[in-house]
From TrEMBL:
Signal peptide: none
The organism of origin for this protein: Bifidobacterium commune
Catalytic-site annotation from UniProt: 233 (tele-ump-histidine intermediate)
UniProt protein name: Galactose-1-phosphate uridylyltransferase
Domain Galactose-1-phosphate uridyl transferase N-terminal: 79-243
Keyword Zinc among record annotations: yes
GO CC term, one of those recorded: cytoplasm
EC class name: transferase
Domain Galactose-1-phosphate uridyl transferase C-terminal residues, every copy: 250-370
InterPro entries on file: GalP_UDPtransf1, GalP_Utransf_C, GalP_Utransf_N, HIT-like_sf
Keywords associated with the record: Carbohydrate metabolism, Galactose metabolism, Metal-binding, Nucleotidyltransferase, Transferase, Zinc
């Protein structure tokens, strides 16, 4: 059965034959996509439920407050910090989002689970009773483009010092699997391959939305990280500006290119491969290493051997090799801290994809990389940011990169095929 064609995303040979993307819209107008790898859905023998049965009003429509007064949609805004030049998004509506994980839980249902017919909780985001991978716009976004709202700079209190404008970005959720009690580390490589395709698909499509400057797929995992929903999932934040960490990295990669003619990220990767000491994983397309100036008590950077700027530029083999390496990384991360029973732990972590910016000219000096790290510094200890780190951004590491790498070497071979 012929696959649906999209404006900018192009599937490789594997995805064209083994992954089917089906778009629809949720009841309030948000975009929703099924990414199926089950053969009966890929072939078209079965189809997904496309109608969202919830009686939701348009997400940008006015609503009634507790006193019955009509209140306009409160779009996220952002204000510029004069001391740093950074844009700070402010999304007051996120205060009402459901939290189902951790001590601050405020809801009992799981909006990321597949629909259960007859279940009293009927405010889930997935119309079907099952799925493989799904992607949809966040119901409580930090940034969103609101139709009809001009993307103009205004000033807080009428004072020209304080710039303000709409936080006209985009926030999406990627659910990795329908099993709400599962762990990303336990997913088969074939399912993680579908997740990789979702990252590439959304990068390709969103990069052509006007006003988007940076596309950031990431995964927060674990209650200690602050995850509000325990379901295995990630997100894609699409900023209308270059976020601070990327801005700093671009300054350094551009300056290095102008000074040496080389690519800083490639040269760092090559230097780590030559040193060998901190390389923890390697296959035909990717290498994972603990960076020589690692900040976190557990930190691994993953880079493609070929020069690639964004996830959608990866070829079929690189996407498969990435799924395999990500699986090994998550499993070894869970085994990193010894809890005494030989079983390791469900590691809290952040997996952050750093891609070249969408339009900034400095994208030519950049290179795709994954920065994976955990706040955990022992089986029973969390690294809390001290005054130096939180107040001045001056980091103090509790270990050394060589010790981190040595522990990874105990957990499995460097060459993973």
């Amino acid at each position: 059965m012929k696959q649906l064609e999209f404006s900018h995303y192009q599937s490789g040979e594997y995805a064209a034959q083994h992954i089917r993307i089906t778009p629809t819209r949720l009841a309030d107008g948000r975009d929703f996509f099924y990414l199926d790898d089950s053969p009966e859905y890929v072939s078209g023998a079965k189809t997904r439920e496309l109608r969202d049965p919830r009686p939701l009003v348009d997400r940008f429509a006015p609503h009634r407050d507790a006193d019955g007064n009509e209140v306009p949609y409160a779009e996220p805004i952002m204000r510029r910090d004069l001391l740093t030049g950074e844009w700070i998004p402010m999304a007051a509506a996120r205060m009402n989002r459901p939290i189902t994980a951790g001590p601050g839980a405020t809801a009992t249902g799981n909006p990321l689970a597949a629909r259960r017919l007859g279940d009293p909780y009927q405010d889930g985001e997935v119309p079907d009773t099952d799925y493989d991978v799904v992607v949809f716009e966040n119901r409580f976004p930090s940034m969103v483009q609101v139709p009809g709202v001009p993307n103009d700079i205004t000033h807080v209190d009428g004072n020209g010092l304080w710039e303000q404008k709409p936080a006209a970005g985009r926030c999406e959720v990627i659910c990795f699997d329908p099993n709400e009690n599962g762990l990303p580390a336990d997913l088969p490589v074939s399912r993680l391959r579908t997740v990789v395709e979702a990252w590439a698909f959304r990068t390709a499509e969103i990069s052509h939305i006007d006003g988007i400057e940076q596309i950031f797929p990431f995964e927060n995992h674990g209650a200690e990280i602050g995850v509000s929903l325990a379901h295995p999932h990630g997100q894609v934040y699409c900023y209308p500006f270059i976020p601070p960490k990327m801005k700093t990295e671009l300054q350094h990669t551009q300056a290095y290119q102008e000074r040496t003619g080389g690519n800083l990220l490639r040269d760092i990767m090559d230097a780590e491969i030559d040193a060998g000491t901190r390389v923890v994983m390697r296959n035909s397309s990717w290498v994972g290493y603990v960076p020589a100036a690692a900040r976190w008590p557990l930190e691994v950077h993953v880079a493609p051997l070929r020069d690639v700027k964004t996830l959608d530029e990866l070829n079929d083999q690189e996407r498969w090799d990435l799924a395999s390496m990500y699986s090994h990384l998550l499993r070894r991360g869970n085994a990193f801290f010894d809890t005494g029973d030989g079983k390791g732990m469900d590691l809290p972590y952040i997996a952050a994809w750093h891609q070249a910016p969408v339009r900034d000219s400095r994208r030519e000096s950049y290179r795709l990389n994954l920065q994976f790290f955990s706040f955990r510094r022992a089986a029973n200890k969390i690294k809390y940011l001290a005054g130096s780190e939180s107040g001045m951004g001056a980091w103090v590491s509790d270990t050394t990169p060589e010790r981190i790498a040595a522990r990874f070497h105990e957990l499995g071979p460097v060459d993973i095929g």
